[in-house]
Amino acid sequence: MNNYTFDELKVGMTESFDVTITAEMLDAFKGITGDVNPLHNDEKFAESKGHPGRVAYGMLTASFLSTLAGVYIPGERSLIQQVETKFASPVYIGDALTVKGEIVELIDSVQRLTLKVTITNQNGKKVLRGKMEILVV
């Protein structure tokens, strides 16, 4: 886990990590949220809608932004204030995702950073993009 102080952060800094989506992740997410939509839970249903299999929950994909901020940049001093996301493409079981953040703004007076975020799959296709505003406490 990183432990950047505000003074150690610079515009242009990046951090990233990789994660592979599993059926167990989808099942755990369903158990936590109660979202039983068949697109996420029934392979045959998802295939009947033109997908190669179960579609990962968009919010499961977006949840990795919490890991990005809380573990990587800035790390344990992170307090997320705002998250904006756009789901660019579906994510499927077996997809290997790269979660990346780049500092695009630092506001010294409140010790807040703006992080441009992207998540890409194993083919380099962007599946999520957005930004986060994070206090460094």
What separation lies between the terminal Cα atoms?
Answer: 15 Å
Helicity level: 25-40%
Which oligomeric form is depicted? single chain
| Low-pLDDT regions | none
Estimate the global geometry from the Cα principal axes. Answer: elongated
**β-strand amount:** 35-45%
* CATH topology-level fold name: Thiol Ester Dehydrase, Chain A
Strand order of the largest sheet: 1-3-4-5-2
The number of helical runs is 4
Which class do the helix and strand fractions yield? alpha+beta
| Sheet having the most strands | 5 strands, antiparallel
CATH superfamily: Hotdog Thioesterase
Quote the average pLDDT: 98
CATH-derived architecture: Roll
Q: List the helices and strands in order.
A: EHHHHEEEE
- How many strand units? 5
Question: Compute the gyration radius: what is it?
Answer: 16 Å
Protein model, in words:
- With 137 residues, this protein is α+β, with helices and mostly antiparallel strands.
- The chain has one domain (6-136): Hotdog Thioesterase (Thiol Ester Dehydrase, Chain A, Roll), CATH 3.10.129.10.
- Helices cover 26% and strands 36% of the residues.
- It has 4 helices and 5 strands, in the order E-H-H-H-H-E-E-E-E.
- The chain has helices at 23-33, 38-41, 43-48, 58-72, and strands at residues 14-20, 78-87, 96-107, 112-120, 126-136.
- Strands 1-3-4-5-2 form a 5-stranded antiparallel sheet, with helices on one face.
- The two termini are 15 Å apart.
